[in-house]
Design goal:
A hairpin with a 5-residue loop joins strand 1 and strand 2. The protein is an all-beta fold. The chain has a three-stranded antiparallel beta sheet, with no helix packed on it. The chain is built from no helices and three strands.
Length: about 100
């Protein structure tokens, strides 16, 4: 248990808001939201399927040969080959959005 761990996942988000008051109850709010402001790449967990390595079957290889994880003969076991696939929220690429809001 807990012998293997995937890559770390972290990002910095920032929210800035400025309010411009016109009267006591009416104001215009300008807001900027920055997600993953440092634009750090968050990798997904690597493939955990390890092909059998001994035997005489069609998908098995003898000792000393490359693992047969793909059609090219290279194994993808433990290789970071994709990023977290969220479009919004935790794990996204850098995103910036601005908003104006009139409160009355």
């Amino acid at each position: 248990r807990n012998a293997l761990s995937g890559p770390s996942l972290w990002q910095w988000d920032l929210l800035i808001e400025k309010r411009f008051r016109f009267t006591e109850t009416v104001y215009l709010g300008f807001r900027g939201e920055f997600y993953n402001i440092l634009n750090r790449t968050n990798f997904a967990n690597p493939p955990a399927l390890l092909q059998p390595t001994l035997g005489t079957g069609t998908n098995q290889v003898q000792p000393g040969q490359a693992l047969a994880g793909t059609t090219t003969g290279n194994s993808l076991f433990g290789t970071l080959n994709s990023t977290v696939s969220n479009q919004i929220g935790l794990g996204t690429n850098r995103q910036i959005q601005f908003a104006l809001r009139l409160n009355f």
